[in-house]
Amino acid sequence: MSDSEHTFEHKADAGASKTYPQQAGTIRKNGYIVIKNRPCKVVEVSTSKTGKHGHAKCHFVGIDIFTGKKLEDIVPSSHNCDVPHVSRNDYQLIDISEDGFVSLLNEGGNTKDDLRLPSDDALATQVKDGFAEGKDLVLTVMSAMDHYPCSKIASSA
Predict the structure, then answer these.
(1) pLDDT at 5
(2) What mean pLDDT do residues 80-96 have?
């Protein structure tokens, strides 16, 4: 069989993983965890003692970092959980378009034009008003698992 007869399917992506494994017993409050395929900030952790089936269990209560919804999960403490790679980036606000998209500038001088104003009306109004007043606004954008939520854009003058 010659090399020309081999076919390979390319299904892997070139990017880094969206999550990494971490033992459930080592995840603490204020950390991050994936619950029901959603990145969550851990707000409560409780661990049960080892029962007759041999595993201590960790009960996690998390808040979805994008929607604010409360999610819960119970995992054996010796098992691995997925932990999302969460990043926060600061951008200077350059412009707000009529359709609600913001134009942002990072420290390297590159622009980011694919984000909308936050869905939180109070925060969106604060950003619009500050921009209309001519203030220099720095917006913090949180991203995890390929999501860039508009509701997590925060401003600081």
Answers:
(1) 58
(2) 92
In this structure, the dihedral spanned by the alpha carbons of residues 123, 86, 146 and 129, taken in order and rounded to 10 degrees, is: 20
Count of C-beta atoms within a 10 Å radius of residue 125: 12
Q: What is the DSSP string of 23-76?
A: EGGG--TTSEEEETTEEEEEEEEEEPPP-TTS--EEEEEEEETTT--EEEEEEE
Full-prediction pTM beyond 0.90?
no
Which residues lie below 8 Å from residue 145, measured CB to CB, with a gap of 6+? 18, 19, 34, 39, 84, 85
Q: Which of 45, 41, 39 is nearest to 19 (CA)?
A: 39
Q: Which amino acid is at 112?
A: K
* Other Cβ atoms closer than 10 A to 54: 8
Half-sphere exposure of 118 (CA within 13 A, CB side): 20
Task: Read off the tokens for 50.
Answer: 């080892």
Residues 17-76: pLDDT tens digits? Answer: 889 999 999 999 999 999 999 999 999 999 988 767 778 899 999 999 888 899 999 999
Is 17 in contact with 85 (CB distance < 8 Å)? yes
